[in-house]
Amino acid sequence: MTQSGDTVAKSVPIARLRLGIAWTVERDQTMLALATLAGWTHTIDEMRIGQFVAVPFGVANVALVAAWPRLRRRSRAAMAVTFGLFWGLTAIPYHVAPLVAGVVTWQNVSGLARLAAGIAMVALGIEIARGRRHPPAGEPS
User: Fold this and answer.
1) Distance of CA 94 to CAs 81, 86, 113, Å?
2) By the 8 A CB rule, do 126 and 9 touch?
3) CA distance 84 to 133
4) Within 13 Å of residue 79, how many CA atoms lie on the same side as its CB?
5) Given CB 3.0 to 4.6 Å as the disulfide criterion, which of 6, 12, 77, 136 pairs with 129?
6) Do 126 and 120 form a contact (C-beta atoms < 8 A)?
7) Residue 138: φ, ψ to 5°
């Protein structure tokens, strides 16, 4: 009986460790997916008026969400910051500046969703980068 009890006791921490890794990647992927959805809300609004400039980058962002679990921690951080800076910085001159100047249009208001997406992705990338230096066994660094 002690032998089976020892086996269970030894396997539980490994199971908890693996669950913790999966939870972290899954939570980060969910955050990225929600931010991507926010970026796409404005992209769809642009498509409605015939502007398709951001569609390729939006598709690349969806591909990033799909590939997220297979990326290393540093790659996840770098990609989140890169995509976030793109979404956020492109929204400022085209939507935030006109809103500050008093030009309130639906296009400028929906552009704030893209700014929010950028901020969320940059924050996610920074959180990942500031994370643990040495990942637990089994997680790629």
Assistant:
1) 20, 13, 13
2) no
3) 23
4) 22
5) 77
6) no
7) 100, -20
**pLDDT tens string 16-53:** 445 455 557 789 999 999 999 999 999 999 999 999 99
The DSSP string of 43-112 is HHHHHHTT--TTHHHHHHHHHHHHHGGGS-HHHHHHHHHHHHHHHHHHHIIIIIHHHHTT---HHHHHHH
Place of tokens 């940059």: 122
Two structure tokens written together for 48: 């409605």
Helix or strand run (H / E) with residue 24? helix 2-48
Q: Are 129 and 77 in contact (CB under 8 A)?
A: yes
Q: Given pLDDT bands bounded at 50, 70 and 90, which one contains residue 131?
A: confident
